[in-house]
Every structure is written in C-alpha cells, then in structure tokens.
Amino acid sequence: MEFNQTAKLFIDFQKTAFTNWCNAMALFQDQFERFVNSAIDHADWRPDGFNCFLGRISLPGEKTLAFTSETEDQPRSILIVEDYELLLNLLSEAFAMPGWQVFKANDGLSGWDQFQRKPVDIVLTDIQMPGLSGIELAHRIRKQSPETIIALMSGENDGVARKLIENGTIDFFYPKPFSLSQVSKSLTATVKGS
C-alpha cells in the first residue's frame, strides 16, 4: 500500500471511531434520561411523614399531611442551598412543579440573605459550604422561623444530623448520594401543622 492509501484508511478509521463514540454517547444519554424518568415515575415513597433516610417519624403534636387539593391551591416555596452547581440545578429541576416556587443559593450566606428577604416553606441545604455552614444556617432559620421545614444533605456527618433532628433544629437528613425524586416527594408531601 502506498502512504496516501494508508493515511486515508487511518483517517477513515478515526472518523468512524469518532462517529461511533458520538453515537454511543447519544444512546447513553437517551437511556440515562429514560432510566431517570422511569425511576421518578416508579419511586417508592410514603407521604405519611416517614422516610427511609433516618427513620423520620412525626413527633407528638406535629401534623404530617400529604398535599390535597385544599393545600395545592396555596403556593409553596423551597430554598435550595448547595455549593455544587450541578446538584443545585438538579435539585431545582426536581422541585420545579406547578404550585411551587424554587429559590437557589450557592452558599450559606446567600441562602440566609434570601431567607431573610423571602421566608419559604422548606429549606434544603448542604452541610459543608464556604462562609456559613448548613448547620449554622439551620440554627438561624429555626430561630427566626420555627415552622419552616429544614432538611440537611451531606455525604458525611450523619451523627451530627441525628442530634440536630433530636433537638428539633432540622426535620430531615438526606445522606448523599440520594434519590432526587425521593427527596422532592418526601419534602413536598410533608407539611407541618400549627
């Protein structure tokens, strides 16, 4: 074979390999989206105040209700505080549903500022963030607004989270990694009564 023919075969091989790789990535993305949508549609969750993450059970005197048509008419709001932008956006999408306002903050101080300007029904915050930790944010919010549902998420510190649940600082803890649909369904289905 001549050099030109060999070079042409090599270039054709590279084009074919690149095309195959692109097709595989597109197929993977399509299958991943189908998997995620299927998982969301078939998620096993309980709207009765119990979640499998830390065995959350309603406390005496606390009402835990699934949303009904009566409560769906009232606009609900959530503030999501997470310094990892991809997860912040994924969580925001998980809560983007009719009747819900989603507010985002990428650190604890921004989250606190937003909460002071516009209190929300639910705060979902990471524990470890620059500036103001999720734990300190939870303490501030609980002090200012005892009726707000507060959930922490983290890849560690579940011992600390258990203590915070026990002393009433937070309501839920979601260890990472977690199911986006379970987090959104368990939080949106939980409402504290007066």
Structural description of this entry:
The chain is α/β, with parallel strands linked by helices and 194 residues long. 48% of the residues lie in helices and 14% in strands. The chain has seven helices and five strands, in the order ααβαβαβαβαβα. It has helices spanning 3-41, 69-72, 85-95, 108-117, 134-144, 158-166, 180-188, and strands spanning 76-81, 100-105, 122-126, 149-154, 172-175. Strands 2-1-3-4-5 form a five-stranded parallel beta sheet, sandwiched between helices. Strand 3 (122-126), helix 5 (134-144) and strand 4 (149-154) form a beta-alpha-beta unit. The longest helix is centred in the first third of the chain and has 39 residues, at 3-41. The chain starts with a helix and ends in a 6-residue tail after the last helix.
Number of helices: 7
Large-scale geometry: elongated
Instruction: Using the CA coordinates, give the radius of gyration.
Output: 22 Å
> Spatial order of the strands in the main sheet?
2-1-3-4-5
- By DSSP, the count of extended strands is 5
Would you summarize the structure shown here?
With 194 residues, this protein is α/β, with parallel strands linked by helices.
What are its keywords?
single chain; 194 residues; alpha/beta; five-stranded parallel beta sheet; 7 helices; 5 strands; 48% helix; elongated
Structural topology:
Blueprint: H1 3-41, H2 69-72, E1 76-81, H3 85-95, E2 100-105, H4 108-117, E3 122-126, H5 134-144, E4 149-154, H6 158-166, E5 172-175, H7 180-188
Parallel strand pairs: 1-2, 1-3, 3-4, 4-5
Helix pairs in contact: 3-7, 4-5
